Structure formats: C-alpha cells, structure tokens
Known about the structure:
Largest sheet: 2 strands, antiparallel
Oligomer: single chain
Order of helices and strands: HHEHEEEHHHHH
Domain F-box: 165-209
Mean pLDDT: 62
Structural class: mainly alpha
Number of domains: 2
Number of strands: 4
InterPro entries: F-box-like_dom_sf (IPR036047), F-box_dom (IPR001810)
Strand content: under 5%
Radius of gyration: 21 Å
Distance between the termini: 31 Å
Helix content: 40-55%
Protein name: F-box domain-containing protein
Low-confidence stretches: 1-7, 56-63, 91-125, 237-245
Shape: elongated
Pfam family, one: F-box-like
Organism: Cacopsylla melanoneura
Amino acid sequence: MVMSIAYYLEDQNNDQDSVALQILSQLERQSKHDALAFIMYIQMLECGFTSEETNKTPTYNCRVVAEHIQHYESIITRKNNVYNIVLYVNKIKCNLDLLVFCNSLIANLSAPEYHILKSKSYKCIDVSNFEQIKILCLDFKNNIVMPVRTLALGHISIYSAGLLGLPYDVLVYLIKHYLKVQDFINIGRTCKALNYLIDDQTLWINFCKRENVNLGRDDGTPKTLFRQYLCSKKIFHNFNHFDVY
C-alpha cells in the first residue's frame, strides 16, 4: 500500500518536516534526554500503546511541542541510565499521535554516549548496525514492541485483532481512501465496537468530496447530504442499512 504521507518512523524521509525533531531538540537542550529513549517511546505509540487506558470514543489528539515534552517526561523514569517506560495497550482504540523522524536524527547514535544494549548482559553492540532509522525501527518493533503487544492482547483473549487492533487514525485513513460506502456501512453494522464511525462527519465529508456532492448547502449534515445524493441517483436501495445507527 502506498500512502501519501509517512505514518511511521521507518517510512520517514528527509523531504518532510517533523514535529518530533523539535521535541527531541528541546529535550536534549533542556534536560539532556537520550535521543534513543525518545525514539523507542514514539515507536511504542505507533504500535498501539498509550500513556493511559482509553475508551472507544475517538479523539483527534494533536499536542503542541511543549505538551509532548510534558507527556513524555511524565511516563518515563530513569535510574542509573536505565529507562523504565509504563504504557497501556488497548484492544479498540489508542491515542495515537502520528509523529515522524527524519533520517538525520540517526546521526545522534554515532555519538559515544548513545549505545544499544542487550537486556540481560548490558553489553554494547555495534551501533553501526542501526545507522539507518528504518533498520532500527523495524528491529525494535519486530523483536520487542509487537511481541509484548501480542501478549497483552492475548491476556484479554484477543488473539487476532484485525480492525480492532488498528490505531484510530490509520483506520480512518483506510476508510476514507479505500472503502466503498457500502463496505463502510457494513463495518458499522457487523462490528458493534466500530459503529461510532457511522456518525463521524469527517468521513462523510470525504465521501461527499469523492462523489462531488455539494457541501455548501445548509440543510443537513454531510451524512444527510450524501444520503440525499444517493436518493437522487436512485441507488439508495443498495444501502439498506444506511440508518441502522
């Protein structure tokens, strides 16, 4: 699948600006945090972990730089240069901030004070193996973050997360760009945990734009306008469950 923007660290390139770089710069300047610890924190957010237990109600949680720093420092403790991070994994929805790094950040890993350690022996391994952010991200996610997430989901008897395991922002992106309206409605009809998406007006605005429906009228919500459009085209019989919720 080709996306127009980079959602994950390993998909980032040097042509895109990054809020995370501003955060990292302030962290290093203010309190000398390790760049590597912040990378690990962002990767865990990308994989569905959150700083608090969340409910099923979607939110668009876009923090400014200062709030990100406060959030990061509130959940991470450091003792004798060992970081302890406590995060939750949620089966339905997570407060995911789509943060990305440029490859230029990896230059910090070549400095003597940054090392990648094996969990038990604390033996430094060759940092040259991680000179590319893509290699570092994939290795950490595949060997640490995702196995932990799988165990957490297994503990609550969810062994195949499917749509339930997708971060909310990624799920919305897929619906807006790839699903037909009928498939979208079926999601709300067949999956009770996701039926709130039926009333997400942001999605209906996107559907209206896809079908060139006039959004300038004042006689209803985007969902209502799209329903009227279907009626006018005499194809509404294909959407039997349009008003299920």
